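User: Hi! I have a protein structure encoded as tokens and I'd like to know what sequence might fold into it. I'm fairly new to this, so please keep things simple.
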């Protein structure tokens, strides 16, 4: 599938989990984090999703340590607009001056001259949304970012962003147990905008659903694989980015692309 003019495989890798516990600080085993990142690439994930708030800053550094110089086919998507004063907090900061610094910081940590996909991590209720998007547009004109995406937006915010820039991706929470972003997904589908569902396994809740377990048994698969396969079948513009710090779970997740659900199974899961 495509994100703007970039061609990517249908399953990406969410790199958030290779940071320390609660997405705070460095991992206990940095070498293991590098191995997970390299294995994701080997398994065909050529879209890596990260953000400057993961760590904070640690996740982007790990990606560069493990994969730079980057293979030509790798697309790195990062985000800005959330700050972490402490481990439990994820505070919005959509001020243009902050986003400008955030973009420059991501470029340095990722060792890039231009970021393929930069997404506003979340609207800031204290800052006019157009000003935040305008900061990304400025960076795009300056050659610092190639494509612009938005995250954690509703339909009105998506349309507002589209009036200002060419939006190529939306990253909202979406999984078999949480479909609140269905209107946004349908709009993205109509426009050909890539939809990256975060928490594709619902932080594990999707794996406890009875009908997911039943379909998994039929395919001799895990509930996680069925939950991912359902997302892939849900829409042609869906690009799941399951993340993990475990190579075993990574290999399990990536194998979900090989599961073909029948119409009856999709109907049962719907």
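Assistant: Happy to help. Inverse folding works backwards from shape to sequence: for each of the 270 positions I chose a residue that suits the local structure. Here it is:
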């Amino acid at each position: 599938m495509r994100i703007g003019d970039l061609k990517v495989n249908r399953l990406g890798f969410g790199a958030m989990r290779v940071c320390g516990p609660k997405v705070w600080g460095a991992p206990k085993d940095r070498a293991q984090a590098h191995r997970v990142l390299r294995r994701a690439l080997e398994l065909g994930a050529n879209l890596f999703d990260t953000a400057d708030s993961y760590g904070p800053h640690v996740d982007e550094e790990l990606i560069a340590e493990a994969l730079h110089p980057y293979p030509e086919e790798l697309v790195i998507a990062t985000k800005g607009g959330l700050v972490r004063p402490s481990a439990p907090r994820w505070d919005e900061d959509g001020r243009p001056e902050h986003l400008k610094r955030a973009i420059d910081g991501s470029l340095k940590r990722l060792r890039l001259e231009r970021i393929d996909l930069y997404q506003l991590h979340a609207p800031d209720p204290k800052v006019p949304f157009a000003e935040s998007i305008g900061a990304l547009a400025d960076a795009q004109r300056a050659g610092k970012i190639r494509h612009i995406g938005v995250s954690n937006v509703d339909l009105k915010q998506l349309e507002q962003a589209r009036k200002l820039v060419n939006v190529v991706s939306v990253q909202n929470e979406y999984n078999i147990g949480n479909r609140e972003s269905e209107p946004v997904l349908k709009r993205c589908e109509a426009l050909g905008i890539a939809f990256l569902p975060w928490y594709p396994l619902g932080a594990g809740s999707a794996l406890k659903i009875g009908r997911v377990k039943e379909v998994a048994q039929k395919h001799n698969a895990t509930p996680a694989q069925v939950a991912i396969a359902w997302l892939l079948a849900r829409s042609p513009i869906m690009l799941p980015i399951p993340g993990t710090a475990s190579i075993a779970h990574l290999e399990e997740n990536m194998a979900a692309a090989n599961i073909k659900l029948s119409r009856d199974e999709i109907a049962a899961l719907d």
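A useful reference point when you look it over: The chain has one domain: 2-201+236-243. Feel free to ask if any position seems puzzling.
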